[in-house]
């Protein structure tokens, strides 16, 4: 005891050589000295925890106080320090939790008083992945929505996490609104569209994601569309039609220009090119089947087994499209012209160059089969 008392006096003399003003002016030097002086008293065999507490309190070594309180599970002492040292200690306590991997302590400790609760919320704004939790804890759903929105925009590597954040954002936004209005409905619809895009992304073949080295990153609509139609039927794949149907919906819901600038046709031309590519890819993937049909007198059953026929019937019977949008599939009144445009496009593209090696007679026969396919798919769709 006498030794510890002497050591305490020596430690106190060393630390008291710095005035409180110098604690801040020479903060790095003082912190290093304070740590070196107090650390021996923390030794389990030869130390003295009470002296460590006394010195840490006297010279405001908050890190040491927090570590000892945490080790001793002494919440009462923590609250006392909050009262004793005020907001400086509380802010340091929050920062210490974050730096020492104890973030859950920010939310499992006793509910703070309103003033401190507000300060915690402000503090956590620097840590976006934590701020929304405190906002919800304090029923501030507007701030929670904004925080989650920012987190969604910054999430570039994990589509699962991105999807979870979108769901939380949707819930927080719904809770923040006093009642329905058009603006709120539009915001909810946009969040839902973002969630739907994640669902469409999940249909991209893993082989394509691996080839493109995408990993788990969220993707823009343009890339989702492109990767959905990149591959034909894959070994063991039973939902190729579903995948191409999803590509059509991405095209219609995310890539179709809402407002066409009469002085700039770029967006419209890009959309039209994607539309042609979608249907051209469907036909070219079944090219051998179309060629085999040239030898048959009654090819209708074979037509109904093609990717093209099954995707179009799915679009006409399941997709929420209006009459104007049906032209994206081929409106019956103009399908002959549409088929001619499509075949012309296919023959002009290098990726479909196999068509250029076919004789004109064979191409004409395929044209006839496509017209038969479109007429049959419309007839069947009306009966469903």
Give the arrangement of secondary structure elements:
Layout: H1 2-15, H2 20-25, H3 27-38, H4 49-58, H5 62-72, H6 75-85, H7 87-99, H8 105-108, H9 114-124, H10 128-137, H11 141-154, H12 159-176, H13 182-201, H14 206-211, H15 221-228, H16 240-255, H17 266-285, H18 287-293, H19 300-303, H20 307-318, H21 335-348, H22 360-383
Backbone shape:
elongated
Task: Tell me the helix content.
Answer: 55-70%
Averaged pLDDT: 82
Biggest sheet overview:
none
In short:
The chain has 384 residues and is mostly helical.
Describe the structure.
With 384 residues, this protein is mostly helical. The chain has 22 helices and no strands. Helix 21 (335-348) crosses helix 22. The chain is elongated, with a radius of gyration of 34 Å. The chain starts with a helix and ends with a helix. The mean pLDDT is 82.
List its salient traits.
single chain, 384 residues, elongated
């Amino acid at each position: 005891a006498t030794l510890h008392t002497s050591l305490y006096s020596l430690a106190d003399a060393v630390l008291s050589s710095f005035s409180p003003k110098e604690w801040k002016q020479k903060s790095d030097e003082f912190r290093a000295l304070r740590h070196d002086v107090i650390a021996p008293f923390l030794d389990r065999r030869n130390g003295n925890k009470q002296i460590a507490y006394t010195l840490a309190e006297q010279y405001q070594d908050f890190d040491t106080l927090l570590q000892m309180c945490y080790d001793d599970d002494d919440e009462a002492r923590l609250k006392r320090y909050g009262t004793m040292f005020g907001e400086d200690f509380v802010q340091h306590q929050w920062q210490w939790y974050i730096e020492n991997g104890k973030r859950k302590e920010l939310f499992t400790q006793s509910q703070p008083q309103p003033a401190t609760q507000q300060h915690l919320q402000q503090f956590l704004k620097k840590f976006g992945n934590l701020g929304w939790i405190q906002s919800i804890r304090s029923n501030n759903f507007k701030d929670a929505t904004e925080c989650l929105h920012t987190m969604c925009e910054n999430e570039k590597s994990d589509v699962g996490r991105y999807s979870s954040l979108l769901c939380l954002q949707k819930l927080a936004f719904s809770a923040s609104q006093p009642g329905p209005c058009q603006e709120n409905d539009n915001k909810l619809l946009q969040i839902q569209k973002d969630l739907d895009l994640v669902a469409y992304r999940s249909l991209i073949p893993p082989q394509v994601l691996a080839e493109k080295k995408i990993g788990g990153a969220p993707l823009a609509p343009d890339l989702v569309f492109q990767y959905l139609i990149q591959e034909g039927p894959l070994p063991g794949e039973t939902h190729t039609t579903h995948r191409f149907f999803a590509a059509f919906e991405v095209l219609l819901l995310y890539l179709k220009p809402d407002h066409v600038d009469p002085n700039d046709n770029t967006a419209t031309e890009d959309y039209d090119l994607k539309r042609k590519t979608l249907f051209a890819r469907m036909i070219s993937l079944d090219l051998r089947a179309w060629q085999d049909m040239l030898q048959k007198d009654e090819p209708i059953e074979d037509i109904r087994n093609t990717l093209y026929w099954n995707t179009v019937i799915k679009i006409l019977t399941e997709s929420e499209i209006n009459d104007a949008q049906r032209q994206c599939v081929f409106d019956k009144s103009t399908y002959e012209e549409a088929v001619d445009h499509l075949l012309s496009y296919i023959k002009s593209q290098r990726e479909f160059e196999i068509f250029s090696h076919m004789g004109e007679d064979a191409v004409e026969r395929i044209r006839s089969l496509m017209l038969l396919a479109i007429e049959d798919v419309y007839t069947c769709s009306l009966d469903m």
